[in-house]
Amino acid sequence: MLFNEMEGDYMEQGVFQIGPIRPPSEANSLLLRVTENCPWNKCRFCKLYKKNDFHIRQVEDVKKDIDTMAELRDRILRHYKNDEWDIESVNKEYQTLTSDDQRWCYQMVFRWLTEGDSNSIFLQDANTMCLRVDWLTEIIRYVRVKLPEIKRVTSYGRANTLAKISTEDYKRLKEAGLDRIHSGYESGSDKVLALIEKGCTQEEQIIGGRKVRDAGIELSIYFMPGVGGRELSDDNAIETAKVISAVNPNFVRLRTFVLRTGSLMEEVRDSGHWTEGTDIEKLLEIRKMISSIDSSKVNGKITSDHIINLLQEVNGDMDTDIPWMLEYIDSFLALPKLEQRKYQMARRMGFPLDWKQLWRMRESDRLIIEDLAKNIVDEHEWEKKLHVYMDHYI
Ligand code: SF4
Q1: What are the structural domain ranges in the chain?
Q2: Ligand 1 test: best mutation among 47, 49, 197, most atoms within 8 Å of CB?
Q3: pLDDT by residue, tens only, the chain of 394 residues
Q4: Fold of domain 180-334
Q5: N or C: which end of the chain has fewer CB within 10 A?
Q6: Pocket residues for ligand 1 (CB within 6 Å)?
Q7: Please, where are the H alpha helices in 40-129?
Q8: Contact, 76 vs 106, CB < 8 A?
């Protein structure tokens, strides 16, 4: 990740700021750092910005970054002739870059131009929606002028902030060109929200989410099955489904909770009132949550677009595919325990497979996995082993 110190008099050529995180769906987007770090910074499961203070960047500095992106785009596009990239000359130019920051920025703009959905820009960091609406609209308008090929402007926004923004301001943001807000709701349960110190309530989630949707801005919300522990598993599932049914977001993105080493959730566990569920218990919670959604009120998508979810195939439209998603989960749960375990271990080791595709693995890998699945008899040891892998890739 890149953190530049460019806000002083000196500004390195061809460099703009890049923050540490973006949603997976923005992997090929340009990343425009509008604020730095998180203004809340208290969620107990989150370690991301704990050592950094929140800052709002000056609009003029953000605009300079947009200018730099546009200059880099023009520079890189000179290597595109007759519908083809001259990769050799791209590489030659890349070799002339003298700092890591220059190389990161060049790579990002090149990837944005060449890979997948190259029409998006994501506004960083954790809660850009807390910015004054005048400033945010000014920045988005500037993006639209300087980078006219951008078709989608997206941002993170915390539920508590989203609830406070007026309907009028959402309309202004939409008119300026804000297309989608990503928001980590994590849970719809007030009990769980208090436990993890999320700093918002179910009511705020519903109010904020509805305002976003009413303004015609897409809403992508993230939930953490398992974050309430065994004790609040049912509450987490049912109350989360309630929020989804009330808000009808465009996307529900699942992020199965795993207790991270060094996070404040360890204190919650040590208090003795919270116990982390097993991998399979978390899957059962996902099942309960999905089955509790009122499919007559929603038409967005559920996606499992993160390696942290055990069954990546649980994806689909909420108005039509819920029966299919439940059947798919049930078909996995109906497998003999050894088969379940083999898939769990393969997935947790990072093989991005559907459980029906295990046979495609290399025999040597299959044998290692089979050995672990058969020979770790103690359930506690088994969960610990899975956890070691998951702790690495969150
Ligand atoms: S709001 Fe987001 S970035 Fe900030 S502490 Fe919570 S999870 Fe972390």
Answers
A1: 1-156, 180-334, 336-394
A2: 49
A3: 344 444 444 457 899 999 998 988 898 999 999 999 999 999 999 999 988 999 999 999 999 999 999 999 999 999 999 999 999 999 999 999 999 999 999 999 999 999 866 689 999 999 999 999 999 999 999 999 999 999 999 999 999 999 999 999 999 999 999 999 999 999 999 999 999 999 999 999 999 999 999 999 999 999 999 999 999 999 999 999 999 999 999 999 999 999 998 999 999 999 999 999 999 999 999 999 999 999 999 999 999 989 899 999 999 999 999 999 999 999 999 999 999 999 999 999 988 788 888 888 999 999 999 999 999 999 999 999 999 998 876 6
A4: Transcription Regulator spoIIAA (3.30.750)
A5: N
A6: 38, 40-43, 46, 48-49, 126, 158, 184
A7: 59-77, 87-95, 100-114
A8: yes
